[in-house]
């Protein structure tokens, strides 16, 4: 008889710094990485610095309106160019060490004695560029010399989950406004966070508020278990809020079948998208160490809702609680990953079987098969 159980990854995959370094190289530094919200760099010269793989990346916007990204390292002697997490420059990024200054497009434009040093080529010694795409209102970057297909990897993940691209486009994510952002410092491996997000076997144990709004989650099967499936609101539920009360004005362009449902997408390797009729919740993970991941979570609403000063708390509180419940669970698992009890891993029950596909994908990436 075949077993209904599948193995997980062994514990060392969640603790070993060498495996984590290999993941940084084979996954986060090669794939498209969702770095910042486009509105974080709304005007020319506004910038954010983010950790992508083992690099600090400087994301900004040029005077032509295009988002750009560079390795955050001065080309002279290697000082970190921008030490702040966010900020704004008027014309140039100026290194504090010897005052080399770079234009918003990365070109070296000024340095002490530059005119007397003809060998210092302004383009060759410009900032190292990182590939950029803007989609869903976010700036995605890729550190690879030859990036993989954005259409296949990023857009493809949405199509695989929802059945088509039009379904996510109806939520008009680029036009929504940031209503709230919460950053979570999670003492757990990034894969524990993905695995947790993919399954709902834990929903009835740790998510009472979510299961009230989405009663089918009590059955343990996540919306992500089926293609194109959105979990339906309970009959007594008016909106995706902490108590099931009415939410905000709905996004006008949704299809009828999106009216009372929650859809979730995992875009590997570090993005979760949650879609409900009146808002979207987007998580970006920044894996910092084998046992440390920062998660930045954005709540996006219609611009008129945010501009009108609506009380967003009931909407935000639902998924903020879900996040805290989930990240507590991940942090509870992390120490167990280095126990000898988990040396050979644990098991996936049937409602978690789709996680095995994620594990295989991680192994394939590490072995260079993908
Ligand atoms: S290291 Fe930046 S100017 Fe010298
Ligand atoms: Fe959860």
Automatic annotation (TrEMBL):
Rieske domain boundaries: 34-141
Which cofactors are named for this entry? Fe cation
Q: State the source organism's domain of life.
A: Bacteria
Q: Key word Ligase present in the record?
A: no
Fetch the CDD domains from UniProt: RHO_alpha_C_GbcA-like, Rieske_RO_Alpha_N
GO MF terms here are: 2 iron, 2 sulfur cluster binding; iron ion binding; monooxygenase activity; oxidoreductase activity, acting on paired donors, with incorporation or reduction of molecular oxygen
Gene3D superfamilies, per this entry?
A: Naphthalene 1,2-dioxygenase Alpha Subunit, Chain A, domain 1, Rieske [2Fe-2S] iron-sulphur domain
Q: Which InterPro entries match?
A: Rieske_2Fe-2S, Rieske_2Fe-2S_sf, Ring_hydroxy_dOase_asu_C_dom, Rng_hydr_dOase-A
Record keywords: 2Fe-2S, Iron, Iron-sulfur, Metal-binding, Oxidoreductase
Q: Which PANTHER family match?
A: CHOLINE MONOOXYGENASE, CHLOROPLASTIC
This protein's name: Rieske 2Fe-2S family protein
Please report the organism this UniProt entry assigns to the protein: Actinoplanes regularis
Taxonomy-wise, where does this protein's organism fall, top ranks first? Answer: Bacteria, Bacillati, Actinomycetota, Actinomycetes, Micromonosporales
